[in-house]
């Protein structure tokens, strides 16, 4: 049996590894000419790590992961600690520690594991045909690829999704812009083993440790969509948005290389339940594009990959039936995570300023119990327990 996978992001690569693990032939087609991941890093919460462990990648992902022992919120203007607590209860409740990781390094590891001979770059799919016995993708260069199934892991602007749903889906702007990148750890800004977030006025500045003595940082700024931006002015722009913030934030801005700062306007898509049409199925952002506010986008794609492989391996009524069973196991959970992230985004970024101010007040009395409960609730219910 052969699978055509459209998209060599984390979801597509993980799906390729999972399907090869159960004996399928796999070809992955990626439209970019070379591997250039979007975003500097990713939060791999315990459910995502478990998926990679299940695929035999426990050692590799642990080597990429930062040691995140504690979590803290700080007042963005004064730098004072609002709450600080251990993340150990998360690990004890779910059975696996989380790992913030470099997106580029994770993607490179997944490509190595799948094998570059199974990946073709510079291949933009323009059409697909399912004749009932096989599915064929046609690419911009005129070439084609045929398999028993086609998995659309082609991201938030998925062409495969348009085919499955028969019409385009509108993406919803979440109301903020995320600036992100990597810097060397500096403990005058935040402890080396802590996830530290500065908050105020609907903005946030966050730092998470990853391997190699580096912080993954991001700045969130509520802004209209489509604001003009010059990458060379990243430090100046951030300095303006955070002009009255704490000295630690200004020190972080001073450390940045403007040309290494990514700027991403954040969108999501309303959840939907149709992921499958015949021998074609959606996976990852193509099926459940989410904001990054609970760190579950990549993890949810990895869950998709594991469930897809299990469905194809354990059901024997044909691939169309197995794909529907995959869909039925995934849509409710993935959609719920999208809505949780949207709700958290609205609170964090002051969609209603009164609600956000109340959240800041809650943080000042928080001992970690409520935040840990929320993190664990996102992890439990995953396909690997």
UniProtKB/TrEMBL annotation:
Pfam families: FAD_binding_3 (PF01494)
Enzyme class, UniProt record, top EC level: oxidoreductase
Annotated pathway: Purine metabolism; urate degradation
Domain called FAD-binding: residue spans: 2-338
Keywords attached to this entry: FAD, Flavoprotein, Monooxygenase, NAD, Oxidoreductase, Purine metabolism
SUPFAM superfamilies: FAD/NAD(P)-binding domain
Catalytic activity entry: urate + NADH + O2 + H(+) = 5-hydroxyisourate + NAD(+) + H2O
Entry's EC annotation: 1.14.13.113
Domain of life: Bacteria
Cofactor annotation: FAD
InterPro entries per record: FAD-bd (IPR002938), FAD-dep_Monooxygenase_BioMet (IPR050493), FAD/NAD-bd_sf (IPR036188), HpxO (IPR047712)
UniProt similarity note: Belongs to the FAD-dependent urate hydroxylase family.
Protein name per the record: FAD-dependent urate hydroxylase
Gene field: hpxO
């Amino acid at each position: 049996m052969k699978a055509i996978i459209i998209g060599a992001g984390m979801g597509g690569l993980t799906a390729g590894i999972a399907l090869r693990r159960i004996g399928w032939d796999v070809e992955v087609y990626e439209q970019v000419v070379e591997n250039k991941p979007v975003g500097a890093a990713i939060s791999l919460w315990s459910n995502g790590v478990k998926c990679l462990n299940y695929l035999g990648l426990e050692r590799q992902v642990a080597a990429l992961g930062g040691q995140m022992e504690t979590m803290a919120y700080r007042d963005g203007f004064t730098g004072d600690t609002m709450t600080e607590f251990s993340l150990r209860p998360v690990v004890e409740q779910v059975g696996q520690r989380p790992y913030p990781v470099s997106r580029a390094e994770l993607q490179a590891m997944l490509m190595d594991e799948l094998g570059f001979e199974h990946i073709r770059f510079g291949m933009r799919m323009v059409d697909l045909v399912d004749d009932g016995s096989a599915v064929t993708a046609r690419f911009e260069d005129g070439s084609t690829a045929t398999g028993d199934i086609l998995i659309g892991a082609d991201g938030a602007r998925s062409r495969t999704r348009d085919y499955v749903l028969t019409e385009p889906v509108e993406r919803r702007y979440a109301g903020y812009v995320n600036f992100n990148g990597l810097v060397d750890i500096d403990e005058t800004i935040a402890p080396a083993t802590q996830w530290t977030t500065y908050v105020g006025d609907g903005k946030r500045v966050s730092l998470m440790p990853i391997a190699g003595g580096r912080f993954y940082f991001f700045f969130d700024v509520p802004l209209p969509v489509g604001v003009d931006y010059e990458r060379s002015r990243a430090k100046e722009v951030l300095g303006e948005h955070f002009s009255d913030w704490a000295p630690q934030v200004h020190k972080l801005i001073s450390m940045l290389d403007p040309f290494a700062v990514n700027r991403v306007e954040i969108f999501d898509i309303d959840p939907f339940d149709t992921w499958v049409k015949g021998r074609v199925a959606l996976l990852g952002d193509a099926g459940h594009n989410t904001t990054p506010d609970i760190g579950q986008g990549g993890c949810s794609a990895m869950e998709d990959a594991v469930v897809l492989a299990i469905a194809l391996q354990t059901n024997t009524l044909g691939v169309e039936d197995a794909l529907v069973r995959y869909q039925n196991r995934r849509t409710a959970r993935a959609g719920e995570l999208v809505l949780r992230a949207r709700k958290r985004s609205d609170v964090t970024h002051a969609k209603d300023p009164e609600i956000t101010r109340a959240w800041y007040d809650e943080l000042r009395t928080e001992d970690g119990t409520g935040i840990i409960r929320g993190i664990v609730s996102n992890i439990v219910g995953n396909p690997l327990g």
